[in-house]
Amino acid sequence: METPDRHHDTQLMKLNANSTMSRLGRRAFLRRTALACGGLGAALALIASVPGAEESRPTGGQGQTTPPDPAAKIRPPQFFPFCIDWHDAKKRGYAEQAAMLKELGYDGVGHIWLEGVADRLKTLDEAKLRLFQITMTVDLSPGKTPYDAKFKDVLALVKGREVQFCLLINGAPASDAAADARGVEVLREMSALAQDSGAQLLLYPHIGCWVERIEDSIRVADKVNRPNVGVMFNLCHWLRVDKQREYRPLLQQAMPRLWAVSLNGADVWDEQPGWDHYIQPLDKGSFDVAGLLKTLQELGYKGPIGLQCYGIGGDAREHLARSMAAWRKLNAAGATP
How many CA atoms, within 13 angstroms, populate the side-chain half-sphere of residue 268? Predict the structure, then answer.
C-alpha cells in the first residue's frame, strides 16, 4: 500500500512522463525510457508491447488516420540530356546551359570528352545540378596509347560524384571477338584507375565502333568482370545497327550490368543515312518510347535516363523544352521505371 507521499510522487512522475512523451512522441519516449532501464532488448520489447507505439502517420481529421499515398513514394528516374553543345544555334556556354537545364527541370547533363570538366562541374554545382556522364574514346590499335592521360586527372575531379564514363571503343572491327583479350586488358587497367573515384565505366554501343551492339557490351563487360564496369543501351544506335525490333531479350540479358539507358524520339525504320529519323525530340517519331520504358520498369531497371540530342538543330532550349514536356507526360502515364 502506498503512503500519501509516495502516491503523490507517483502521480507527479506520471504527469512528467506524459508531458515528456507528448514532446518527444510516444515511440521516441519509450525507446529512451527502456534504454535507460536495461538496454536495446528492453527497449524493443517495451515498444512492441505498447498499443499505438507505431510510427505516427498524417491524420485526415480528429481520430482518423489517412493511409499513405503510394504515388507519393514513386519518383521518376533521373533525366538528363547530352550532346547539347554542338548544334545549339545559340552556342550557349556551360553556365548558360546549366541555367537553362535548371529552369526546364532536368536533373543534370552529360559531358562530351575530357576537356572542360572542371568548368562544367563549377557551373553545375552553382545550379545544384549533377554531372551524370562523361563520354571519352578508347583505342585498341596496336602501338597506340589506349586512352588519354587526362583520364586520371578527370577521375580526381569527379571523385565521389558517381560519374559514369561512357567509352567509345575503337581500334578493331565492329563486334570482332578476336579483340576481346586486348579490350579486357585495357578495360581492367582503366577499372583499377577508376576504383577509388567511385566512377563507373560504361561500354557504350556506337555504330562503327568495336563495341557496336548491346550484345558486344554485354560480352565484353562479362569478361572484364569488374564491379565498376557495366553497359549502356542507346536507342538510336540500336535502331541503326539491329535489323529486328525485339529489345526485351537484349535488355533482360544486359540487366545485371545495365546502368544507363539513352533514348529520344525516333521513327521505327529509316533506310537513309544520317540521324534525322533516329534522333528527334522526345515528342516526335513513330517508335513507342512508352513501351520501352514500360519494359525497363518490368525488368527492374533503376538507373538514369539520358536524352540523346546529337544533330538536333535550332535553339536547344526549344527542343529540350518539348522533350521535357513529353517526359512529364510519360511520367504521368506511369510509363517510366
Answer: 9
